[in-house]
Design brief:
By secondary structure, the protein is of the alpha/beta class. The protein is built from 11 helices and 12 strands. The chain is globular and about 75 Å long. The chain starts with 12 loop residues before the first helix and ends in a 28-residue tail after the last helix. Bound molecules: pyridoxal-5'-phosphate.
Length: 406
């Protein structure tokens, strides 16, 4: 029996030491450590400003507020994402409108965005999601936004360090938002970041996450606008600074695992990830697509191999979205993806024997399906790949780690 977990989080002694130093300093909430992390993260993304937040969701809400989203304003986003992408639009007072995804990249399809824009005149912005670590079709989306005078807010929560033609995500649109949840490519426990080259956006976002406080020389209790408390803690920033230093090493390991899967899955009946020219994938998830997803997942689970389904229900099909008039339309590519995607372990600590076990289990699954097909053929029964593993040991199909990746 193997035991290959989908997620493996590791904090170095350096991170622990830096947390200790922060605890010693007495800054437990906001403080200089957060400023240092913001500076380092802005530098890493190639932008002039970064604002630390309590998580990726609050980063998105604050960025939308800073972009001036008005009540009821429509924002086009992807229905195939973690629900936070669309929830943030609603929390900021806007209306999410779902375009369909590109079936190859799982990201917002520019043609579908165009067809939404043909039908609606109330759209003020685009919120593309760089799903699984692969950037969306940013050059085309940015051209559309330019032409239509829309803002572009990148949901980069899953794509730290990904890039398009050499420019890192978070530096492509008007602003970008990141999550540092434990399953992400780098973590702070809970935490988020807004990146932007626009000083006004950075100032408004920083004020929003701090109850609208402005440094206006009038003392610290001047609240220019309504805001919230979505601040990052200094403890989170201490962990984040060390994780950011290690991000290139984490990314290289993820990309090496992904390359190995690409090379070793190509003979099997699975669709491996597509990476369009010019885009750098950082493999937050290595997601394959198969016809018999649930049966394959059961086979892997029986061999103690953790897998994930991101996401089994498109956002427009979620009960919380039933009341939205924009949620009812069909989004066939998102719906097909929800029924067929399966994410394999790709984390930086995955060992060669572990990834070999993953590929061996997938190969065995399809060998056995082929055997069943041959037997069925011999006896004149129709082949049903979906049932090929009905005999497999029933197993809890949830990954065994306590964190289920959003
Ligand atoms: C695509 C996407 N958007 C937004 C979020 C929200 O981030 P958080 O969980 O830090 O609030 C996440 C992850 O959790 C995500 O994967």
């Amino acid at each position: 029996m193997t035991d290959v977990s989908l997620v493996d989080i590791e904090l170095s002694q350096r991170a622990r030491d830096r947390v200790d130093a922060v605890l010693e300093s007495g800054y437990l909430a906001d403080g200089p450590e957060v400023r240092r992390f913001e500076e380092a993260f802005a530098d890493y993304c190639g932008v002039t400003h970064a604002v630390g937040t309590s998580n990726g969701t609050t980063a998105l809400v604050a960025a939308l507020e800073a972009l001036g989203l008005g009540d009821g304003d429509a924002v086009i986003t992807s229905p195939f994402s973690f629900v936070a992408s669309a929830n943030a639009i609603r929390h900021a007072g806007g209306t999410p409108v779902f375009a369909d995804i590109d079936p190859e990249t799982y990201a917002l399809d520019p043609e579908s965005v165009e067809s939404v824009l043909d039908r609606r005149s109330d759209v003020v912005g685009l919120l593309p999601v760089h799903l699984y670590g692969l950037p969306a079709a940013m050059p085309t989306l940015l051209d559309i936004a330019d032409r239509e005078n829309l803002f572009v807010l990148e949901d980069a929560c899953q794509s730290h360090g990904a890039s398009v033609n050499g420019t890192r995500v978070g530096a492509l649109g008007d602003a970008g938002c990141f999550s540092f949840y434990p399953t992400k490519n780098m973590t702070t426990g809970e935490g988020g970041m807004i990146t932007t080259d626009d000083e006004g956006i950075a100032e408004r976002a920083a004020a929003y996450i701090n109850h609208g406080r402005r440094a206006d020389g009038n003392g610290s209790y001047s609240h220019a606008e309504l805001g919230h408390n979505h601040r990052m803690t200094s403890v989170a920033a201490a962990i984040g600074r060390v994780q950011l230093e290690r991000l290139p090493e984490f990314t290289a390991a993820r990309r090496a695992n992904a390359q190995w899967y690409d090379d070793h899955l190509n003979e099997l009946p699975v669709e491996t990830p597509t990476v369009p020219r010019g885009r750098r994938h950082v493999y937050h998830q290595y997601t394959i697509r198969v016809d018999d997803r649930d049966a394959l997942r059961e086979t892997l689970s029986a061999r103690e191999i953790g897998t994930g389904i991101y996401y089994p229900t498109p956002i427009h099909r979620q009960p919380a979205y039933e009341s939205l008039s924009t949620a009812v339309a069909d989004r066939p590519h998102a719906e097909r993806a929800a029924a067929s995607v399966l994410s394999l372990p790709v984390h930086p600590n995955l060992t060669p024997p572990e990834r070999e076990a993953v590929v061996a289990a997938i190969a065995a699954h399809y060998d056995s399906a082929a055997d069943h097909g041959r037997e069925d053929h011999d006896t004149g029964h129709e082949q049903n790949p979906g049932n090929a593993h009905a005999h497999a040991h029933a197993h809890d199909s949830k990954p065994d780690h306590e964190y289920d990746s959003p």
